[in-house]
């Protein structure tokens, strides 16, 4: 008989919660665990290794779809590194775009923050900007399709 672990032991050893292990099994990211006669799931060291792989990929922000593809590549002895790199490159491009978006938000908020007088007056450039950006836009008659004006 090969060494097996309960779901709690597998969770502890892999760093993936029991709830997520069941979820990964349900969505078929991992194979269904063997069961005891009383229905308890049993996990092998190889299963735990796979769960660690998934945890690391999730920590790097890979989607479940990407992780599924990476798992398939990991298990395939005839894989090519360019196939793995293609998946990683797609994720890296998305992360860089998200980082640029976050940096843009930081820059905008810092500019608003710097304009705040931080005193007892009610005037607030932060709230003014949020209120202005929240106004609906309607087409403006400017002679081309890109013109818009703010309305109350």
Would you give an account of this structure?
Helices cover 58% and strands 7% of the residues. 12% of the residues are buried. The longest helix is centred in the middle third of the chain and has 35 residues, at 81-115. The strands form two sheets. The chain has a two-stranded antiparallel sheet with strand order 1-2. Strands 3-4 form a two-stranded antiparallel sheet. The protein has helices spanning 7-14, 18-26, 45-59, 64-75, 81-115, 125-133; strands at residues 34-35, 41-42, 137-139, 148-150.
Summarize the structure.
By secondary structure, this protein is mostly helical. It has six helices and four strands, in the order H-H-E-E-H-H-H-H-E-E. A hairpin with a 5-residue loop joins strand 1 and strand 2 (41-42).
Topology:
Elements: H1 7-14, H2 18-26, E1 34-35, E2 41-42, H3 45-59, H4 64-75, H5 81-115, H6 125-133, E3 137-139, E4 148-150
Antiparallel strand pairs: 1-2, 3-4
Helix pairs in contact: 1-3, 4-5
Give a quick account of the main beta sheet: strands, pairing sense, barrel closure.
2 strands, antiparallel
Count of extended strands: 4
Unreliably modeled segments: 144-152
N-C termini distance: 74 Å
Q: Outline, from the CA principal axes?
A: elongated
């Amino acid at each position: 008989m090969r060494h097996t672990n309960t779901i709690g032991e597998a969770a502890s050893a892999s760093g993936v919660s029991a709830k997520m292990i069941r979820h990964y099994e349900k969505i078929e990211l991992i194979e269904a665990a063997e069961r005891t006669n009383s229905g308890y799931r049993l996990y092998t060291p190889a299963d735990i290794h796979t769960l660690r792989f998934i945890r690391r990929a999730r920590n790097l922000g890979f989607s479940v779809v990407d992780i599924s593809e990476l798992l398939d590549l990991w298990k395939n002895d005839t894989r090519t590194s360019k196939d793995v790199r293609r998946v990683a490159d797609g994720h890296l491009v998305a992360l860089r775009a998200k980082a640029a978006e976050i940096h843009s938000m930081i820059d905008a908020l810092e500019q608003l923050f710097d304009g705040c007088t931080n005193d007892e007056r009610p005037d607030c450039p932060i709230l003014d900007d949020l209120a202005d950006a929240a106004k609906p836009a309607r087409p403006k008659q400017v002679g081309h399709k890109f013109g818009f004006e703010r309305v109350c």
